[in-house]
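Usage

Read records sequentially. Each one opens with the input sequence:
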Amino acid sequence: MIRHFDAPDGTRLAYRDEGRGLPVLCLSGLTRNGTDFDYVAPHLADTRLVRLDYRGRGASAWADPASYTPAVEAGDALALLDHLGLQRAAVLGTSRGGLISMLLAATAKPRLIGVCLVDIGPELNLAGLEVIRGYVGKTPANRPLEELAVARARMLQGFANVPESRWLEEVTRHFVVRDGRVALNYDPELRQVFDRAGDADPVDMWPFFDAFAGLPLALVRGANSDLLSAATATEMRRRRPDMIFADVPDRGHVPFLDEPEAVAAIRDWLAACEAAAAEAAKGKR
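and closes with the structure output:
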């Protein structure tokens, strides 16, 4: 069930809060929403999944495009934890969500139990960014969803052995039909994210990754990802030899997270988070 709360600036944000157990805050990709985690949810029955729709996405209200930044969205994520009375949570961050988790580690680390990054790291391939830039904010042609599903399968690189039904599920979740026409399920002004990035000085994200020190950490990568290179993943593993890692075959950016390799890595990470949370609770007695 979708619920709502007000962000610090008054923007009405949507979220889902389901299950019992370790709280896992799910943060989705740039143009996406909490439905990103529909595929993995059945495999995480013993957790409390909290799924946020960022401002301007999904069932959340649109806002000033200037507020579509990782810093503001990180603040929204913390506000949701506060709203739910959660002092700490594990974070499952896909793409944009992983960048937000790095920012949280650097600025609000006591609120984190652990982090699982999904196809994201401190360095991003320009080729992958250009693919995203090519579709962000562009309303698709008004065609049947079945045709859009075929087009999406062709556009997203690095995927193989994906049933046609999965691509149809994808477009159904991430597009809407309004007044008989297909529309984006997010604010088209999100394209300004790329405009602002082009005007800003480059930021070294490695210190933000290093801020995960001491937290249970995992990385689920699409083996054919055009955004997160194998070289960057290797450096991440060098810096964090204890990081749980899965390279999911036949997947680009991003894995669906119900692949056996992804599920196994996430479950191992959750076990580490459970142990860390228990140890922290023991220390408070």
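Summary fields computed downstream for this record:
- The chain is about 35% helix and 20% strand.
- The mean pLDDT is 94.
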